[in-house]
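Progress report, Aim 2. The chain analyzed during this reporting quarter is listed below.
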Amino acid sequence: MHPRPLTSREREVLDALLAVDFPGVERLRREAESVQVRGGCDCGCPSINFFEGRNNGMTHWVNAAVIGSETFDGLFLFTVDVAGKGEVLGGIEWVGQGESNPLELPPADDLRVTLATT
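Predicted structure tokens for the chain:
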């Protein structure tokens, strides 16, 4: 059911992704305190969306590679630009190269988090 609170794993991963400094991150950290999951991917991967509705595009801010993965599995944090609000948390997108998708995001301790290059 949506909207729903983040699971403890989702919360840990979001906090790890927001630990990287980039323009506007302080505001996003405050927003993250009360953010809810509003949707996910239909393919069954652990991607989650914090915003649904009309927006003016997304910005990819942070990448996270799964440490020790034999593939290029990882995820990224993105925001969406909403008229009248500006950049808000958009979601966490899973990028998997393996044969199947995990049921949940990897533990935050298993991630190497870096600022996305534009």
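Residues 8-115 form one domain. The chain has one domain: 8-115. These observations will guide the mutagenesis work planned for the next reporting period.
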